[in-house]
Design a protein that fits this description.
Elements: H1 20-46, H2 50-76, H3 92-102, H4 107-135, H5 139-167
């Protein structure tokens, strides 16, 4: 089974003082996850391909966990102005209502647009994490950024395989019909 892309895998970061670049990185990751969540919830309901729907559900859950971890981390650092409330887990009804507004496409068009969106999110995560690697001082944040870069490159490979399968529906990469996982 294909591992879901993780636009940002957010593990607790053990440290206490963050410099401005560390805070910028963490706030940027939080904003990106919040922005990415609505399309993920919508694709989980409205995507045409079952593999894309399953992927969207998994990605939405990873995004929710990341948002919660970042909010807790920033609050522990004394940052309370976070630009939005912590989201509650959405049910299928919430996602169905969000689908038309978040992704005004359907079927195969939605599938490809969602995969492209996840690719853009992965590339943006690499850029943000690279900035943290050059300007951040906190070892925990730098470690998280390094992991984000590795995960995002892996995600891009998985997404490229999925996009190829979606563009060539007669070609199956694995017996289940899902793209073969990458290491």
């Amino acid at each position: 089974m294909t591992q879901p892309p993780s636009p940002t895998r957010t593990a607790p970061v053990a440290r206490y003082r963050l410099n401005p670049e560390d805070l910028r990185y963490l706030r940027g990751e939080l904003a990106a996850l919040r922005q990415a969540r609505a399309p993920s919830l919508a694709a989980a309901v409205a995507a045409g391909d079952p593999a894309v729907r399953a992927l969207a559900e998994q990605v939405g859950e990873v995004q929710l966990q990341g948002i919660r971890a970042l909010v807790a981390l920033l609050r522990a650092e004394g940052v309370h102005e976070l630009g939005g409330a912590e989201p509650a887990p959405a049910d299928r009804h919430d996602a169905a209502e969000a689908a038309p507004a978040s992704l005004p496409l359907s079927g195969a068009d939605l599938d490809l647009a969602f995969v492209a969106l996840l690719g853009e999110q992965a590339r943006a995560a690499i850029v943000r994490a690279s900035a943290e690697m050059t300007g951040g001082m906190d070892a925990g944040c730098r470690g998280q950024a390094e992991q984000t870069i590795r995960d995002s490159w892996r995600d891009l490979a998985v997404l490229a395989d999925l996009a190829r399968r979606l563009l060539s529906p007669g070609v199956v990469d694995s017996p289940s019909g899902a793209p073969a996982p990458t290491a």
